Amino acid sequence: MQRTATQTTPIQAGPGPSDVRPYRERLLRIDDVCFMTGLGRSTIYAKVKAGDFPSAVQLHGTSVAWRETQVDAWIAARPAVGATPDAQPAAKPAPIAASKPGRTARAHRPARGASVGVL
Question: Residue 25 in contact with residue 68, Cβ under 8 Å?
């Protein structure tokens, strides 16, 4: 049945050129994923295994890649630093302990034999 311009029923989109998305899904290799997330290779593969990161798609042989939209969604789902309302304030770091009783602790001490004099 041929459709004409006078028909008012919507045309169902089928597979074909009219079904093209307005963007093109990019596949990212591991180096790109590491760069985007700030995670290392081992961490990414460990998170995939644990189910905490999107799975890669097989390209061929042992080559894999990640869908950019899935990586972007994973990044967007990460909470911002300090964004959780139930967050406890960070504990104060412990003071630097003195190495011997009676000595005061210093944050930085020059190495033995190092010249500390003024020119």
Answer: yes
Residue located via tokens 């004409």: 4
Rounded to an integer, what distance in angstroms lies between the CA atom of residue 39 and that of residue 54? Answer: 14
Q: Which amino acid is at 50?
A: A
Dist. CA 44–CA 30, nearest whole Å: 9
State pLDDT tens for residues 57-83: 999 999 999 999 999 999 999 998 887
Query: pLDDT digits over 8-47, tens only?
Result: 444 445 555 555 557 788 999 999 999 999 999 999 999 9
Query: Considering only CA atoms, which of 42, 18, 21, 15 is closest in space to residue 30?
Result: 42
Tokens encoding 42: 């081992």
Instruction: Look up residue 91 and give its two tokens.
Output: 């504990």
Residue 7 token pair: 């028909």
